[in-house]
What does this fold into?
Amino acid sequence: MKLRKPVPLEQRLVYVQVVEGLLQHGLQGRVSPRLKQRLRQAGIDLDRPLLPAYPVPLWMHCLSVIVEETYPGVPREEAFRKLAEAHVQGYGRTVIGRAVYGVMRLLGTRRLVQRLPQTLHATDNYTEVELVERGPTTYEMRMNSAVDSPGYVEALFESMMRVGGAESPKVTKTHVDPAAPSTTYLLTWTER
It folds into this structure.
């Protein structure tokens, strides 16, 4: 795998299909006028065509705004988990997502996990993933980011693994280094 040159936080971008997957598909029918206004104030105007990419700090702020508006009164981690599940479902409704998910279903969970570095590479301009196989249904995954959205990344990958046919997928954060930044997760599942 050819590694990309490290991208400073202020230059990190998330691509339009990620934003579209959540805002136009995953939250379909749940974007209130207040949420739309708060997203516009943050930098995403849903009354205009989406931009090709958005700065990661802006996107992370928008995720927090979405959780506050869409899941009021729900504990933060549970709300981020629900949001991640909606995001994966919505991404699967985008043009790119339909194609990617079709391949994921054919690959099965193990090969889906092995392809995560390439899959994630297509969602932004910075993500690097290192995988270490710990067993036939267990992988350690290190990413070059640390996300302050409790439960979001874990639920995102669990939902993706379900797309690939995983039974009882479990993603556990095992180490965070905010200085690097990097986060290590343990991915486990059983086969159907």
